Amino acid sequence: MRQNTTRRTNQAGVAKHSLRKLRRGLTLLELMIVLIILVGLMAIVGPRLLGTQQKADVRTAQAQVGNLASALKMYAADMKVFPSTEEGLEMLVKAPEDEGLARNWDGPYIEGGKLPIDPWGSPFEYEYGVTEGETEENSIDFPRIFSIGPDRQTGTSDDIGNQPAAGEEEDPDAASREIEA
Asked: Which residue in 28, 76, 157, 160 has its CB near the most CB atoms, within 10 A?
């Protein structure tokens, strides 16, 4: 009888040992299934989040260009002229060196007294006046303010500004990137 009890105990021990091995295998399998599900979800959701971030960066740049355009209008109301391309946006935060002009300057025209940078870490560009290939008659009457965009190169399709560059035609697809001054 003792052998029979030992045999049952051994069989129960073997069954427990086999069950533990089986349970470990199921746990690994469960982990793999969860991992596959998570990777699948990230493959679906990841690109959407990235696209949302890019749209947010473009909208932020558009808002900043709009704020700079408003600041330039205030500057022009005080100074009776927009800054030249050479003077640039710096005139919104720094008084002119000429004392006669400095009397009219009522800045800084940007909150915080510091020029913003675009969402991609580049300073905003500024153009005003007659440029190469233009005559006085067809020159722009409001300064062009723009971000060079995520590729950080001037004159590419991802530039974001208040008007197209000189010599460029209005691109209907770029209307979402360009904003009114």
From this structure: 160
Enter the tokens of residue 121.
Answer: 């870490």
Mean pLDDT by 10 residues, the chain (181 residues): 56 59 66 88 81 89 94 92 92 90 89 92 88 52 92 88 74 45 39
What is the spatial order of strands in the sheet that 144-147 belongs to? 125-127, 144-147, 160-161
Which fold is adopted by the domain 2-176? Answer: Glycoprotein, Type 4 Pilin (3.30.700)
How many other CB atoms are found less than 10 A from the CB of residue 78? 14
Query: Would you call the peptide bond into 47 cis, given omega within 30 degrees of 0 as the criterion?
Result: no
Domain locations in the chain as residue ranges: 2-176
Sign of torsion over alpha carbons 33, 37, 43, 47: negative
CA dist 143 and 73 (Å) reads 10
Closest CA to 119 of 49, 51, 53: 53
